[in-house]
Automatic annotation (TrEMBL):
Pfam families: DUF2147 (PF09917). Gene3D superfamilies: 2.40.128.520. Residues 13-129 form the DUF2147 domain. This is DUF2147 domain-containing protein.
Amino acid sequence: MMSFFTFSQSIEGVWETYDDDSGELKSEVKIYIKNGKLYGKIIELHNLDVPLKDALCYLCTDYRKDKHVIGMEIITGLKKSGNDWKADDALLDPNNGKLYDATFWLINDDKLAVRGYVGWFFRTQYWVRK
């Protein structure tokens, strides 16, 4: 007798983000689930144009204004919807201080699609599991 097991891939873990144009490693984001919702915070920055001490969210307009980007929660409160995680105003870009509606989904165990929306317009990045 043979048994078959299916393993659900976990979105939780540390993910590397890359610059869309240069392909340079930009940051590492720790994604975790708390109370059934998805969150993520920056745990490392790479290839900065400014000293690490100056990596603050100068353009943020909420409680994160002028706070250090390291340790900053940039993913907040996404809810599971089928194979995706979604929420409005849930993804912060600390480079411009803007909040985006977001949808995340696993391409495979080592590749995560991260899509930010403003109205009908969107951009998708692919993060790599560390």
